[in-house]
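Record minuted for completeness.

…
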Amino acid sequence: MGIIIVELCQSNAITKLEIESILEEKYPEVDVIESECLSTCGLCALRPFALVNGNRIFGDSLKSVWRNCNFELKLSSNFILCNTLQK
């Protein structure tokens, strides 16, 4: 089974949510990494965002970025499941 990496910047508003425990409980294949800086040069000051397997996922509010992250994680989870079943 594959792993999905979610990276968070400590300076970003998304860290106000208890996203690490929520995601790891909901998606067992997810590993959340919180870093001091993700080198996205100012994006963390502009809007909430996360990196999901290197893809920037953002929104205008915490609620929208959470919804977008869930959507991306479902897609990634289904991709991993399909690849696992084909082997």
